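Annotators were shown the component list below and the corresponding predicted structure, then asked to write short factual statements about the assembly.
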Amino acid sequence: MTATPATAEPAAERPLVRTRPTAALLRAAVVGCAAITLAVLAGKPVLILAGLPLLAWALVAVARRVRRGEELGIPLPWIHAGRRTIEEGASTSVTVTSAPDTLLAATVPLAPHADFAPRYGAAAGDASVRLRLSAQRWGRVHVGPVHVLVTDPLGAFRAQEQLPPLDVRVVPSSTVLDAPIEVPTPIGVSGVHLSRRRGDGTALSEVRAFRPGDRLHRINWRVSQRTGELHTNATFTEQDTEVLIVTDTISDVAPAPWADDDAPTSLDMTIRATSAVARHYLTAGDRVSVFDIGHLIGPVRAGTGPRQLRVLTDALARASRDDQQTRPMRRLRGVRPGTLTVVCSPLLHPEVITQIGEMVAHGADVIVVDTLPPSIGDVSVLQGKPLRRDGRISDRFWPEAWATRRLLRRTTVRELREAGVPVTAWEGPSSLAPVLQSLSVARSAPRMRRS
Amino acid sequence: MRLSALVDPIANLLLDLQKVSRTQWILRLIGVAAMVLALFGALPAGVFANFLAGLVSTLALCALLIQVFRPDTDIGVASPLLIILALLSQSEVSALQALGVGAAMLVSHAAFALAATIPAHGVFEGSAWRLALRAMLPVIALSLIAALVVIALSGIRLGPWMLVVGIAAVISLFLLVLPRTR
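Structure shown to annotators:
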């Protein structure tokens, strides 16, 4: 059995694989010939009738093979996927095709966080087998290697091959944030956010005396007529802003054993929050970039528009979640003052807290999205003995250890809030609404100079 | 000995059985039912009527049981051979009886041959069933035609020299059906 390329070339040009007789053909030949032999030796011709059907089965199989010229081999089956990039919860099909009028059986190893139809990923069909793949979690799903078995319709001659695997990219689901788009400090050039600077815009800031250089179409004739002096409408400029999303992928904390089967890990929550925030601000026309502290997602430079959203979701989907190791930390060198920085992190590593402090010191407007699974450190389940749920038992003191860790983390969260960094737990599309609302209110409040 | 140590392996076995697809259940049950039918056809007096019948039936059923778990096994040749031997031991065998036994063995053989093409958890799509049934039509046609020829020629008495010709024909058939490579 050799692994050979399985591109979608026409059947006539595909390499051939040799078929071999099966054990069924041997059984049919032996039984058929044995019946005839015994009939001849015993002088009972009717005994031939008992072995005749099996012999006919074997003869038809051989004749079919000769007639179709399959003695040299049959074309190698090929595989292709319907869509190579899908969203979480969506599905795609994987089709294996072989020469016509052959029985094709394809078997795919089950992949984590992906469901197949048929359920266990093995099916047989007439020259073509279609397997449906539904991805439950973002990332890359390795489909394969696919084991294929091609036989004639009777099962007398067969060939087996292993086709190379396919990768299907699953992008995080398209959550729409239910939150305002206002930011405290727009620092861009032109966009939808009201800034404090006066200039060309649509929002009225004041009506003042006309100065040389003011645009004539801005003259407020009613006020000018009433006061006897030329007055003009002054406006606030509208700017876009830069949004930096910092993702903490240093480690992936799994939910508690007693959580639901589909409960997300910390990495799931981080990726989904990142995707939702990025989509929210890219839709508003802002520049969004991503910096990954944990080396899992490559850095994504600032960009705008639908193209940036595609680049970002592709980068998130390319992240591999197969390895369970803790990754080294990458440091963010600097951040432009006024950048809205959204940090998605479970807040477990002191280096991350330090990094947040540095970003605040650089003048960034930082929001922290807490992505620690809610079932971790849940004190309501503590009973003073190992927890047993649905036949699963936790390690001794595991729930207590995490409860203690969460208590310690509470101090960290309180200190961040006292430093002016809002911390909100990720609970879906409406998680950031209160925080962003308070930020938009705070932009007009007196601001304390950061030392 | 803890009860769980006894029960858990059985429970795991039962859970593994859940993964066996409906297609495999159907094919293997057809294979078993047809072979048992052939056994009953070959031993009309009863499968355990005497010691030899009982011995043949037991061996055939054991081989069948193994074939249920391993449809591709070479041991699957034992059941039909034993059934033919049982038929041979009958003093009077009618053409209909022999043909019926042969037909039942064909159904069993075809079912196990198809079961061997997919894993235990594999399923046949509708197109696969149609393809397999379509492929059986020429087999059935050839069997019927050949049976008519055999029945027509069975009344002809030939001399002992026919033994040599017959054996040579059998060997030629065997070599024709089984190509050199395996």
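Statements collected:
1. The mean pLDDT of chain A is 82.
2. The CA atoms of residues 37 and 48 of chain A lie 8 Å apart.
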